[in-house]
Amino acid sequence: MAKVTVVGLGPGSWNGLPLGTYTILEEQQQMGSAVFLRTERHPVVDDLREKGIVFTAFDHYYEQSEQFAEVYQKIADHLLNAAREQGQIVYAVPGHPGVAETTVQHLRRQGARAGVEVVIGPGHSFLDDLLVHVGVDPADGMLLLDGTSLRPRQLNPSLHAVIMQVYSPDVASEVKLTLMEQYTDDYPVTVVRAIGVEGMEKVLTIPLYELDRLDWIDHLTSVFVPSTEEEAVVHRQMWRYVEIVSRLRDPEEGCPWDLKQTHQSLRKYVLEEAYEVAEAIDKDDPFELADELGDLLLQIVLHAQIGAEEGTFDIYEVIRSAADKMIRRHPHVFGGGREADTAEEVVQNWQEIKAQEKAEKGLVQRSILDDIPSALPSVTAAIRLQKKAAQVGFDWSDIADVYKKVKEEINELQETSGKSDEFGDLLFAMINLARFLEVDPETALASTNRKFRDRFQHIENSLRERGKTLEESSLEEMDQLWEEAKRRS
After folding, report:
1. 126 neighbors 222 (Cβ within 8 angstroms)
2. What strand order describes the sheet that includes 160-164?
3. What is the DSSP string of 189-224?
4. Which CATH number fits domain 2-124: 3.40.1010.10, 2.40.110.10, 2.60.130.10, 2.60.120.1440?
5. What is the pTM of this model?
6. Which of 137, 280, 321, 414 could serve as a FRET partner for 216 with CA atoms 20 to 30 Å apart?
7. How far apart are the first and last CA of the chain?
8. Is the dihedral of CA 43, 97, 30, 16 positive or negative?
9. What is the pLDDT of residues 63-77, one digit of tens each?
10. In terms of CATH, what superfamily is 127-233?
């Protein structure tokens, strides 16, 4: 059976080259069999040349391809073909064959199918020297990440992180920006180049924002990011927030108010916080919006914590359910056989998929109005009820008829001396009119409320400047100040 023996060249120095690797290379040379190197860009390669080791390197694949994934697959294909043709070959990689070597992973996955045995030989990873230098025991918890494909979701500030493949200033810049999504701009990171290689080694601890400003970054460069419990970093993590809320509900050391809460008792707070989020949106204040969204998030996490204590659901089930639903209801984005080129088509898909989900759960829809929650605010509920009815043709055909209906309801209200039912009918007709005018009644009324608040507060402030209170002022004086406020707005 054909065979590929994979060996590691160590972190860079001749002293770091494993004896076992050199022995295998010498034996291969004596037999006249092929030796392949993933890259010539490694300090020990010149020493191998001096020792008479002949090899073929794959650096040309890096020049021919734009994506690393393509490079690594081409190298693996080349090696498997060479092994089948020659029977036995050796493939040498920087460091250790089992650490951050995508080509080796390809060989191990594809070797059996190709009829090639893949044997992992000796190696010495740069990690050994790096961790000794920074004084870290990996048993404390450590992440090993690829700088060319780093994602924020891979990071956990409570663990040390070693980021490899930071082979150029461009990669360093991308790594910096990704780290800044989790860490502060001045967070200390250690940049390591050619660790253990005399005359080439560089180790420098710098603030994160300077990471891509170093002029000596190359293919032998890695970045060490130490773990932290610093609040400015850790408090950005969702898991930390879940821990905080869990602590609030701790039976022994928790908060008496939080411990008393149930799903039902929190119901009003969910609504209140949602309205405060809406108010921040209306104010167009991003900082207040972020703050209010945090208050709304507290309600979500609190409900999830109560669910976890009851054994019904937890925050991870909430997130999983939401993620599944978004993927399922967006087949035009995540793949699912449906297309949607317009917002209207997206809504149509959404409704059809939602109906299918209910059918699969055995929920019988007795009315097209069933999916409109009864707990919605009345204005929002009225809009949705009218839109649902309009979808099946139960609607006015002309806006003139809507105006006529509004006048009819005003007359009925006058005739009945202002009964609640008739007032509700008038509001319902006005909401219908807003729908025809393509005006959101909730937004319109919120705007009017803000205007009223601003103008009335102008009255209060103006009277205060005159040394008067509202009670000491006449309606005429307040009307004059109201008109003044209108002219100013």
Report:
1. yes
2. 142-146, 160-164, 221-225, 188-193, 202-207
3. EEEEESTT-TTT-EEEEEEGGGGGG-TT--TTEEEE
4. 3.40.1010.10
5. 0.68
6. 137
7. 86
8. positive
9. 888 888 899 999 999
10. Tetrapyrrole methylase, C-terminal domain (3.30.950.10)
